[in-house]
TrEMBL record:
UniProt protein name: F-box domain-containing protein
Organism (species): Rhodocollybia butyracea
SUPFAM superfamilies reported for this sequence: F-box domain, RNI-like
Alphabetized Pfam families for the sequence: F-box-like
Ranges where the F-box domain occurs: 95-147
Length: 532
């Protein structure tokens, strides 16, 4: 008989009261009754335990079935998601791109094919994506015709590098095979000093000498002889572009008539400027010339009469002298005449300079007058110590200019050092006003479309700048023609330190109207201010 079904109620209160006293059953009947009740309670507990076990077993089974069903649904859902993703892949716009356009995208991605530090090059990476990419890549020899490689110095040529050399040789051979007979663009970083390393990978490239079209050589103090099967084969007949980057061509080649094929030359005038003059004499078809001066031999311009480069359309002269500024730049500029120049860059990298330079303006002005730069459309003057008045005088000679970029010197606080970007210079660019440097009513640079100014000196005047920009914003073509001007389309201003940004807020209306306006500076609140 279960205690739960017993006639007497389950009186817990009475039991608790008796437990709080010294009560003990006084009679045998009362004692027997308590013991029987206790046994019935124990039986009921056991019965409850049995029922709970049955429920747990039943619930565990149900829970396991539910969990299995949940996992099954989750797995099925994940499969559907993957399937939907694959279906979306079939509808991807890239699949509708014609192979011809896809090949052009690949060409953009494979401009270098970097094989340094064990990398496979972009062309090989693209060809490993999918079957279609592989077919397009392999059927496009131009993708494999660009090679960028590093050749470590002999002291670093250990076992690990020998393994890398074997891998590099295999890669280069693969690229040469897949590029077929396409002209090659090579960027070779040679760490060896004095003599080029005799490496199998380099020999693979020299065997394809006649295919070289664009060559960049990086390194220090190396001889180029190992690049040539014979003394008269560099440049190759197809070579159009030759660049020497941050290095010394220690032994100058016996330059041959093959140099006439060069249209682009980047040359470091290191140690001997005579080598540079000789190169110019033989490169009679140059369209683009970049000269980078490092530790030159101080050859004076008087030793070399100006050389006329009638085919040259782009010239960049970058002076990297640290101890005496502008010497090499003046020497090179004084020795050139370029009547058909359309792009000119004059740059002074004077980090660490402590000496005020000699007169740059005189030599540059003579170069402008001598070359009669009537077709010059782009001018960049960076880091040169030229006064604002002299800068205006230079610009008066190039009315055809469409793009102008001027960077103040890096050290504007040098004693007596002039800075080209000043309030008077900005006012000279105003389209409708005369200025102290421009008494004529004719506007300076009437065809100017793009203007970039990077200021390093403090105290830049915002009001004159905003006023000048407003005077050249002429979106109405009729008004622009009446004034003899072209509408300014882009202006960029970089300011140093912390400035009040409120005056430049007026430029936002021009930016919203279509003029590209970029102003970068740090406001008085410490937040970087930028229009555009």
């Amino acid at each position: 008989m279960s205690f739960a079904n017993h006639d007497e109620p389950f009186d817990v209160v009475t039991i608790i009261e008796k437990l709080r006293t010294w009560y003990y059953p006084a009679t045998v009947g009362e004692l027997s009754r308590v013991m029987v009740t206790q046994k019935m309670v124990q039986d009921d507990i056991a019965d409850h335990d049995e029922k709970l076990d049955q429920l747990h077993t039943s619930y565990d089974g149900d829970l396991e079935r539910l969990l299995m069903k949940r996992d099954c649904l989750s797995s099925s859902r994940q499969g559907l998601i993957h399937y939907a993703a694959k279906l979306s892949g079939l509808l991807s716009p890239i699949r509708r791109v014609p192979n011809e356009i896809l090949c052009q995208i690949f060409l953009y991605c494979c401009a270098e094919n970097d094989m340094t530090n064990g990398k496979p090059g972009e062309a090989l990476t693209l060809s490993s994506v999918c079957t279609r990419f592989r077919e397009v890549a392999i059927s496009s020899p131009a993708l494999w015709s660009n090679i960028t490689a590093l050749f470590p110095a002999a002291e670093h040529y250990d076992y690990r590098n020998r393994q890398q050399e074997t891998k590099l040789s295999s890669l280069i051979q693969l690229y040469l095979d897949r590029s077929k007979d396409r002209p090659l663009t090579l960027d070779l970083n040679i760490e060896e000093r004095y003599h080029l390393p005799n490496r199998p990978s380099l020999q693979l490239l020299t065997r394809e000498f006649n295919r070289w079209k664009h060559l960049v050589l990086r390194g220090y103090s190396f001889s180029t002889d190992p690049l040539c099967p014979s003394r008269d084969c560099l440049p190759s007949p197809s070579l159009e572009s030759l660049e020497f980057r941050y290095g010394v061509v220690n032994y100058v080649l016996d330059l041959t008539n093959n140099w006439k094929s060069l249209t682009h030359l980047r040359y470091p005038t290191t140690l001997k400027l005579d080598n540079f003059w000789r190169a110019l004499e033989l490169c009679t078809n140059l369209h683009s010339l970049a000269v980078q001066a490092w530790n030159t031999d101080r050859v004076t311009a008087s030793n070399h009469p100006p050389r006329i480069l009638p085919t040259l359309s782009s010239l960049a002269v970058i002076n990297c002298e640290f101890d005496k500024l502008d010497d090499s730049l003046e020497c090179i500029i004084s020795s050139l005449t370029t009547p058909n120049l359309s792009e000119l860059v004059l740059e002074q990298r004077n980090e660490g300079a402590v000496e005020y330079p000699r007169q740059s303006f005189h030599h540059i002005n003579l170069f402008f007058e001598r070359s009669q730069l009537c077709s010059l459309t782009s001018l960049v003057i960076q880091g040169l110590y030229i006064s604002d008045r002299d800068m205006v005088a230079l610009l008066l000679q190039v009315s055809s200019l469409e793009t102008l970029s001027i960077h103040d010197p890096a050290f504007p606080d040098l004693i007596r050092s002039p800075n080209p970007i000043s309030k008077s210079f900005i006012e000279s660019l105003h389209a409708g006003r005369q200025s102290a440097f421009r008494p004529s009513v004719e506007p300076l640079l009437p065809k100017l479309r793009e203007l970039t100014l990077k200021v390093t000196a403090q105290g830049f005047d915002p009001s004159s700048f905003v006023d000048t920009i407003a005077s050249r914003w002429l979106p109405d073509q009729t008004s622009a023609r009446e004034l003899g001007l072209v509408c300014l389309r882009s202006v960029e201003l970089h300011l140093p330190g912390t400035v009040d940004t409120k005056p430049y807020e007026l430029l936002r209306q021009f930016d919203e109207a279509g003029l590209r306006v970029v102003v970068k500076c740090r406001g008085v609140d410490g937040i970087l201010f930028e229009v555009g």
